[in-house]
Amino acid sequence: MTMPHVGAIFGAIAGVMAIMLHSSIHKIEEGHLAVYYRGGALLTYPNGPGYHIMLPFITTFRSVQTTLQTDEIKNVPCGTSGGVMIYFDRIEVVNMLVPLAVVDIVRNYTADYDKTLIFNKIHHELNQFCSVHTLQEVYIDLFDIIDENLKLALQKDLTVMAPGLTIQAVRVTKPKIPESIRRNFELMEAEKTRLLVTAQTQRVVEKEAETERKRAVIEAQKVAQVAEIHFQQKVMEKETERKISAIEDFAFLAREKARADAEYYSAEKFAEANRVKLTPEYLELMKYQAIAANSKIYFGQDIPNMFVDGSNSPPKPPWLFSLNMNECEDWTITPHV
Fold first, then answer.
1. N or C: the chain end with fewer CB closer than 10 Å?
2. CA distance 84 to 74
3. pLDDT tens-place string over residues 9-34
4. What is the distance between the terminal CA atoms of the chain, rounded to a whole angstrom?
């Protein structure tokens, strides 16, 4: 064998080895797991991120994502209960596969498990929802709950069929409807908006009127309360004046009564003193004292006439006492001519 033939053989062997080495070395990205098939049978040991070697042409692999991923389902047809065909332009399903469940899910539903478990389920649930609701309900009234209903329905089935695959969120775009119906809906929405604005304006006017009424009521109540306070103040002033007058009257009556009682008591005591003092002996003493106090004593036959008024008689003394000379022996008597 000549040298050129040997070089060709070695070159061919080197080329085959390079091709086999290139086919056996593969790279797995972060957030993925590699599942292997050998002769069509799924192997039970997946590999994580990095470079790995496998038997070329005998063993194949599929990379399965285990982090959050978003599957998009586009142009989903849906027929309403009224017979109108609408289309959902795009539905996004955010899901995540647990690494421990990768082998079981791939074995049961292949590496394209999302087409079986998510895409088909979305089509089925949307068609069921649309078939029992009208276009008005699907397009407007119940549109805000479609995504939540899809999420709950998907997660309920996945919990039973594929444990380890969880649905994080479902986002549904507004469905496409026939152009004529869309224009009618737009006109209806415009009219509804106008009516809503009118209703809101009317409500604002009513609120303003109610506010003005309440303000007027509050002002009237305030005026009434102020008037009532002034009235109560005047009543209290009059009541105070009445009480003061009553107290003054009571004090005046008390003083008058005390003075009358004092005068009555003095008169009573004076009368009692006179009654005790004016005995016959005391009166006799007073008579003698009165006689002793006179500087003149009258005698004669006209003495009794001193108490009788006469036109020709001269004025008589206003008082006349008879004197018993035997009891006045010490006196000096001067006869009056």
1. C
2. 19
3. 766 777 666 676 666 788 889 999 99
4. 226
CATH 3.30.479.30 residue ranges of the chain are 67-177
**Percent share of the chain, pLDDT over 70:** 81
Question: Amino acid identity, residue 115?
Answer: K
Cα–Cα distance for residue pair 122/91, rounded to 1 Å = 9
**Partners of 175 in the β-ladder:** 88
Q: CATH fold of 67-177, please?
A: Tetrahydropterin Synthase; Chain A (3.30.479)
pLDDT score of 267 more than 70: yes
- Residues forming a β-bridge with 78: 86
Distance (Å, rounded) from C-alpha 147 to C-alpha 153? 10
Span 216-239, pLDDT tens digits: 999 999 999 999 999 999 999 999
User: Pairing state of beta strands 59-65 and 41-42?
Assistant: unpaired
Which residues touch 168 (CB under 8 Å, ≥6 apart)?
68, 94, 95, 96
pTM, rounded to two decimals? 0.51
Please report, as a single letter, which amino acid is at residue 139.
Answer: Y
Tokens 């209806």 belong to which residue? Answer: 188
Task: Identify the residue whose tokens are 């005998």.
Answer: 58
Q: pLDDT tens across 236-266, in order?
A: 999 999 999 999 989 998 888 888 888 888 8
Check if the beta carbon of residue 37 is closer than 8 Å to that of residue 19: no
Tokens 């001519």 correspond to what residue?
337
Cα–Cα distance, 32 to 48 (Å, whole number): 7
